[in-house]
Amino acid sequence: MRVLDRFRLDGKRLFITGGSRGLGREMALAIADVGADVVLVGRDEESLNATANDIRKLGRTATPIIGDVGRTEECEALCRRALEECGPIDILINNVGGRRVNVPLEEQTLEQWQQILDLNLTSTFLCTKVIGGAMVARGKGGRVINVASISGMIANRGIGGRSYEASKAAVIQLTRAAAADWAPHGVTVNAICPGGFMTAPNVRWASEHPDVITKFREQIPQGDFGQPEDLGPLAVYLASDASRYMTGASLVIDGGYTLW
Fold this sequence. Notes:
The chain has 260 residues and is α/β, with parallel strands linked by helices. It has helices spanning 22-33, 45-57, 72-86, 110-138, 163-182, 200-208, 210-218, 232-239; strands at residues 13-17, 37-42, 62-66, 91-94, 142-147, 187-194, 250-253. The protein has a single domain (3-252), classed as NAD(P)-binding Rossmann-like Domain (Rossmann fold), CATH 3.40.50.
């Protein structure tokens, strides 16, 4: 087997949350490009169908499922539906997440706090429990990739909503704990920790808080934000046999922002 062959995902199936836009879309397309079929979960039917059609153009099967994994009552049901209707899942990417609130810690309500924890952490737990648990029970290994954030390692400047930092830090530790539990079963669990990427929410932040975005960019050693397509190759690596001996890792991709 040649080196690049270890990155192939022919015959595999991906389940990805938030897979229709931004980072999720690019990871889904990259993994489809190396051979995997894809089950996409998202809230917006139009963008789901658009991404599904782009995956089909690559010669792969794409199954869009409309739903909100940030709602705990929906999340587990969506996962079980995917297993029942789409067959075994080999790769799970827990990509859904966000900050959504910009209020000082002392002003954040319990409802706001819980909403963000459910979005970033509880959804990751439930999808990992159901989809990843099925990998363990199946006994043929698998890959779980959690999209955390550098915000799970640092506190962001000039912005509120610290439930985001707290939930992403918990995702990193959940990654490590699950990796330890499931390593004997051949299921690897790793995290990607992106820095600043120009996704739609950050484009909106740039227009609403240009000073914050400008300062952020100035503090990136490589001089600019990442683009969503920069995440695709890393997702392929973690999903493939090339990363067979890596588990429990949190891989930072931030242009050097956390170096300083």
